[in-house]
Each structure stands twice: as structure tokens, then as C-alpha cells.
Specification:
4 helices; Aminopeptidase
């Protein structure tokens, strides 16, 4: 008999009083988050910007995954949602965590007025590619992304 685990999604806000605990658990998690330097301050700063969101998935009181995104306003008017780092903690993979977060991120984008949502992954990340294809994308872009190190911020 298979036991279905309940996934609870929570959209963080800058006013949340437990961001300290969330930051600590995100930093300690066995996920593929690229930068694990979360603090209460960095989360508050991020969440204070209109159009930014941070979504956390919980299973049995533990962080099972997280994703965040940004609303982009094109100079011609359209709004687009960029979804970044759809990450699931290793022990909670293959339970529907990433799918639940992606569905919720799409809903957040709709509520923010976005006409499209964008999400990407590396060419060799077959599980992520399968997940995203399962949502029937209207378009699949091909091509490299270039990163440039700009040095230390001047502000």
C-alpha cells in the first residue's frame, strides 16, 4: 500500500516572522539551490520587491522544495514571469513537489498579470526537462546563456 504524503505550499512574505528558521533550513537542505547564503535580511529584501515571489513546499513540517521567480515588465508593456530554481530536497523527489510548485508559480504569474512564464534548465538535466515537457510548453527555446562576472557591487 502506497502512502500519499501531503504537500503544503506556502508563499513567503516580507512580514513573515519565521524567515530566520526558513533561511537556516534552506541553507542546510540537500537541494540544488545554487546560492545557499539565505538570511532573514536577504529574504525580506527579495520579497519586498513587487513581482518577486518565494514559494516553499513542506512535507510533514520539513522543507521539501522551493522555487522563486520574478515578474518582468517589457518596455512595450507585456509582463512575463521568470521562474528560477525549481528545487526539491533529495529525500522528497518523485513525490510531486516540483509539479505542485510549478502549478502554483503559474497561478502566481497569472495573478500578477503575466502573459507567459519562462523556466529553464541545463541540457543534461533530464528529470527537469521531463517535468517541464509534462506541462505542455507552447515554445521550447534553444541556445546558450552567457554569464559575465561583474565584480563586487559598487553600492
Amino acid at each position: 500500500m502506497e502512502i500519499k504524503q501531503t504537500i503544503r505550499l506556502r508563499r513567503l512574505t516580507a512580514a513573515d516572522t519565521d524567515l530566520d528558521e526558513i533561511a537556516r533550513e534552506l541553507n542546510d537542505s540537500d537541494s540544488e539551490v545554487s546560492v545557499k547564503k539565505f538570511t532573514t535580511g536577504t529574504l525580506r529584501d527579495f520579497l519586498s520587491i513587487h513581482g518577486n515571489f518565494y514559494l516553499v513546499a513542506f512535507i510533514e513540517g520539513h522543507i521539501a522544495g522551493a522555487t522563486h521567480g520574478y515578474l518582468h515588465l517589457h518596455p512595450a508593456g507585456p509582463k512575463y514571469l521568470y521562474i528560477d530554481e525549481v528545487d526539491t530536497v533529495k529525500e522528497f523527489r518523485r513525490l510531486g513537489v516540483a509539479s505542485s510548485m510549478l502549478r502554483e508559480a503559474f497561478e502566481i504569474g497569472r495573478k500578477l498579470g503575466a502573459s507567459e512564464a519562462w523556466v529553464g534548465t541545463e541540457n543534461d538535466n533530464e528529470p527537469a526537462k521531463a517535468l517541464y515537457l509534462g506541462f505542455s510548453p507552447s515554445e521550447i527555446e534553444n541556445g546558450p546563456i552567457y554569464t559575465y562576472k561583474l565584480g563586487e557591487p559598487t553600492n
